[in-house]
Amino acid sequence: MTNYIRGVPVDCYVGLWASGLYTAIPRIGRWDYDVKNTATNPPASGYDVHFTVQNGMLTWGNTAVKGFFSNPSVKDSFFLLLANDNVIFICTEASAYKYKTVSRVQKNIFNVTQDIYKANNVSYNFHTTLSGFDFNPFIKPDDTNICFLAGALVTMQNGRKPIEDVVPGDIVAVHGPTGRVFEPVIWAGSKQCHVRPELPDDHSGYPIRIRANAFDTSVPDADLLVTPEHCFLFDGHLTPIRMLVNGGSIDYDRTVHEYTYYHIATEDHSILIVNNTCAESHLDTGNRSLIDQSPRELPDAPNFQKNWADHAAAPLNTSREFVEPLFQELATRSRDLGFDTKRAVLSSSFDADIHLRSEHGQRINPIRTQEGRYVFRLPPNSSAYWLCSAAARPCDLVGPFLDDRRKLGVLVGGMTLFEKNMMRPMQEYFENKYLPGWHHNHPSTIGWTNGEAFLPIALEASIEPAILSIDVISTIGEAL
Asked: How far are the Cα atoms of 346, 373, 399 from residue 349, in angstroms, in the given order?
């Protein structure tokens, strides 16, 4: 079974060619690297770094990957730590020759406060992620799949059938502008999901349980389990069910840790009738291959990529103006049905705790703050810093009806470095879209951090410390 990260099969390799790594998804510092699908791009030489997934574990060959040593200020190399405690050196320079085992380390040198590997007098910190690309040994579920769990009853031309039993050629009922019509199923797919409980619920893979009568009387007419991104029809608009979770009649089912999900497609994107609800069929936006490696489909089924703007059965609506009143209506109904509707909302009054962290893990507190300006003294001979703060997602602070799932820390309006009697405005944090820890905004002269944002500062050797001034427009708690 192939596993996927962000729509890319993890049974893949990172191309280590003579010219270095191509640009695309995982990154170190300011450099991106390409992840290719081995199904369509088989490894071409021994210069390829080949990752696979075995029993849910990311592996190098047959050995599980524990994590990475990297330094954001070093753009051309990193180290891969394997379960057998080998450390593999990976270099992205054009002159790099393959990869090599550089040493053997002992497990007992690693602890929670100092996971550092040194090579050529440079310190590389241990991470389970590689600068934004999640290589945690257990692979994240793909939160873009839109599917039903087993037991969902699809209305057919003759009665109802469990979703897992529907096959291409079956005739399903479709909700149309003029009423119920019938269309043939052209494709059916399924896939296994393993829940990641340490992630936020909407990314963890937990299914959402929609209780009987949650939308209206007998709608649904029995409990219905779906994935969080599945859209339902409300007032002529399609809205993901995750935006309507109220903790009662619509909630994540945290008792389910592993399951198979199913979906079906008609020739056009359509509104199916499932457990007496109006739910979307599969819309192939290029993700159909992610649902089933051996899909069932009609021989003459159309095969082209679609999009929401041109091919959706109804417009997608995730705006707060539309979703919040619907959320409140269903939450009120949930209480009327007797459910204890408790939705955990984070407090927005938390301490922002704005500080810097050096490459060695040293915490650097501001020496002065005034009206949003934070002034730090930077120790000399340092090559990497991170701007750190408390962070949260707007959807967790306000409610799931706010479709903003970014993790936000502070909104930075400007930075100035004072060094050796010189003043240098820093602009790379909003000019370089690949800089780890930054969200891009409009206008582009300001930028949100994710609570741990890399600062591209390399100080020259000096007996005098440098001064860094950061203008913080807002913290996430103040912004909402």
From this structure: 9, 20, 16
Q: Is the Cβ–Cβ distance between 237 and 315 less than 8 Å?
A: yes
From first CA to last CA, the distance across the chain in angstroms is 42
Neighbours of 192 (CB within 10 A): 11
Spatial distance between the Cα atoms of 132 and 134, rounded to a whole number of angstroms: 6
Three-state SS string over 130-144 comes to: ECCEECCCECCCCCC
Cβ atoms of 435 and 470 within 8 Å: the answer is no
**What are the beta bridge partners of residue 89?**
79, 100
Closest by CA position to 15, among listed 25, 5, 7: 25
240 token code pair = 């993901």
Whole-model pTM? 0.70
Could you list the pLDDT tens digit for every one of the 480 residues in the chain? 333 333 333 333 333 222 222 222 232 222 223 333 333 443 333 334 455 555 445 566 667 777 766 665 555 566 667 777 666 665 544 343 333 333 333 333 333 334 565 555 556 666 655 443 344 333 344 445 789 999 999 999 999 999 999 999 999 999 988 889 999 999 998 988 888 888 899 988 999 999 999 999 999 999 999 999 999 999 999 999 999 999 999 999 999 999 999 999 999 999 999 999 999 999 988 666 556 644 566 666 666 678 888 889 999 999 999 999 999 999 999 999 999 876 655 555 678 999 998 867 789 999 999 999 999 998 876 666 889 999 999 999 999 999 999 999 999 999 999 987 788 888 766 676 656 788 876 566 788 999 988 887 766 666 677 899 999 999 998 887
- Measured between alpha carbons, how far is residue 455 from residues 223, 374, 383, 467 in Å? 49, 15, 10, 14
